[in-house]
Each structure stands twice: as structure tokens, then as C-alpha cells.
Design goal:
The chain is α/β, with parallel strands linked by helices. About 35% of the residues lie in helices and about 30% in strands. The longest helix is centred in the last third of the chain and has 25 residues, at about 150-175.
Length: about 180
């Protein structure tokens, strides 16, 4: 009986070693965040995203640009460079709108909730794998109480929406790596 167990353990050990060593030749490395990066990628460039929306919030452009840069620097092994990185992002904020979403019967406050929506156009260039380049628009929103002004809520809402946008952009750029 122990001879059979030894054979099974030996066979499983050999199988495990085979899989361990066969995976060493893989050309893609993975990060803990779920996205992987081409092994030759060393740099990322993320240009300033100006706010070209009809309605402008002064904190939006720097908040978004800084958050996108921070995501790639903290979640990958890439170094941030000014331009022409192995991975290159540029674009602009094209939408910043607040609209009523929940209507009430009251004449004083016709909307119970308002929705802040931010839309960003992103041009992504992957210099190592150009087939993964994209030019896409990303949009997210958060609802807020209509008794509050947009200006009083911007400091809370903008970072929340920016986090969602940055996560989507990061996953879109990294889903094909």
C-alpha cells in the first residue's frame, strides 16, 4: 500500500515540476490588480486631460490626470515619463453635466435627486502592441440630493466618479495585455 502512495506522490511531484518549469517561458507578467503588462514595457506617459466640457469644474482636470497617473504608477512596475511612453494616454474631458433624475410632486423642489455625469475621451497607444490601441469614451455618474448645490458637492462627487473612470480606463488598457 505504501508503494502505491509513493508512486502517486512521485507522479504528482513530477507533474507539478513540469507545470512550474513550463510556465517560466511565458512572455507576459501579471500584476495583482488583474491586468498584465507586456514584459518589455517600461514606461507610461499620461498627458494632462484638459476640461473641454461646456461646464467646467476647476478641480476636475488635475484630479483626473493625477488619479490616472497614480493608478499606473502604483499598480504596475512602469515608470512615468513626460511623453512617448511604451504605453501612452492622452485625451480630454468632454462632458461634465448635472441633470435631475428623480422627479417629485413638489413645486418647490421638482427634483429629488440630481445626477453628476463626467465623460472622458481617451486615446491609448500601445507602442509594443499597436493592435491594442484604442480611442474610446468613458462615462460615469453619481446621484446626489437636489437640496444640495453642485458646487457644494463637487469635492466629494468628482473624486468618486474619477475613481470609477480611472478603473475602467486601466482595465480597458490592461485587458488585452
Amino acid at each position: 500500500m505504501t508503494a502505491i502512495i509513493r508512486k502517486i506522490v512521485f507522479t504528482l511531484g513530477l507533474t507539478g515540476l513540469f507545470f512550474l518549469f513550463s510556465g517560466l517561458g511565458c512572455r507576459v507578467s501579471y500584476t495583482l490588480s488583474g491586468a498584465s503588462i507586456h514584459p518589455d514595457a517600461r514606461t507610461v506617459s499620461i498627458a494632462y486631460f484638459p476640461n473641454n466640457a461646456p461646464l467646467v469644474a476647476t478641480i476636475l482636470s488635475p484630479t483626473f490626470t493625477d488619479a490616472l497617473q497614480e493608478k499606473f504608477v502604483s499598480q504596475t512596475r512602469l515608470s512615468l515619463v513626460q511623453e512617448e511612453g511604451d504605453l501612452d494616454f492622452e485625451g480630454e474631458i468632454v462632458g461634465y453635466t448635472s441633470t435631475p433624475t428623480a422627479v417629485t410632486a413638489s413645486n418647490d423642489f421638482p427634483a429629488a435627486m440630481n445626477r453628476l455625469t463626467i465623460t472622458v475621451r481617451v486615446r491609448f497607444k500601445n507602442r509594443l502592441e499597436p493592435e491594442y490601441d484604442f480611442n474610446r469614451t468613458f462615462s460615469h455618474y453619481v446621484d446626489y440630493d437636489s437640496n444640495l448645490t453642485l458646487q457644494s458637492m463637487e469635492g466629494e462627487l468628482i473624486p468618486e466618479i474619477v475613481t470609477m473612470l480611472v478603473d475602467d480606463i486601466y482595465m480597458a488598457a490592461g485587458s488585452n495585455w
